[in-house]
User: What shape does this take?
Amino acid sequence: MQNLAIIFGGRSVEHEVSVASAKNILESLDRAKYQPSLIFIDKSGNWHLVENLNQEALERSNEKALLADVSRPNLAFLEGIDIVFPVLHGPFGEDGTLQGLLELMNIPYIGSGVLGSALGIDKDIARQLLKFHNIPVAKSQVIRPSRLLTFEEVRQELGLPFFLKPARLGSSIGTHKVKTEPDFHVALKDAFSYDNKVLVEEYIEGREIECAVLGNENPRASIPGEVVPHADFYSYASKYLDANGTDLIVDPDLSEEQVEKVQALAVQSYQILDCAGLARVDFFLSGQGDLYVNEINTLPGFTAVSMYPKLWQESGLNYRELIDELVELALERFKQKSRLKTSYHDPLVPDKKAAGHF
Assistant: This one.
């Protein structure tokens, strides 16, 4: 039996989504294979070992702080953990920071490594890399406090309406569909409250398609799904707060050619961005039939309404089997890295020690 640590919560506005994902994963674990350890990170960054995921246990977690002083970390409690499932969405968990810590501690973990995680969360950098490799993406611009753009400058480049969002966040938090100059100023202020890098992108009228990817060196794609929000766009409220805010359609009405193209682009994007384990790739399908990669999510949601596990279930892999494969992929990647040398020897120079010369 493997000791699997689920790390969840975190210092992110996606904290609540992370808790919901952790609950679903815990309920689906095969207890004959895994002994779960629940590590909760509160919004202040303190780490706690909790016995269950009910609200009372999380609220009382300060009584069992493992890492109450983040400036002087003591991570001995991670010794004995066989593998980590980092169910942390957004900054300080999905962006490579936690992955770097686990790499230093030599602990296997599910999902992309430091580089893949960092690339995936930065929508601007990811888009630049995909564009370089001729993957179709929407036109976009970046706004920083030191590089402000006016509404008119953005309008001339991208047209109206356009989308404005924090560059390194998920769950549509801080995302706005901008139609007027007053909208622009409100949206920009809100986005800057979450990130100091803001992405503005052209609006592509059409359908929102999603595809799940699973694997390391030879990843495979699920059947596609479609998101149909009842609101103006797929906002945080329509994802998580309004039970009837969105229709999630698994295996939507797409031609065989379109399905194959979605799957091919999803796998290509996954590999270009150095992903591993799992990711969800989101697309826009225009009214003219053109596909554009919107973004990649390297730690997609595992909530009751999340598309990633739904797509794999429809593709023939149930929730429990999906977790088993994610664990296997993480251990496979860990073993491959463990074989790499940590000492240098020039193979063209005779090894005197091996020849008996001491």
In short: DSSP finds eleven helices and 15 strands in the chain. The chain has three domains: 2-109, 139-202, 206-338.
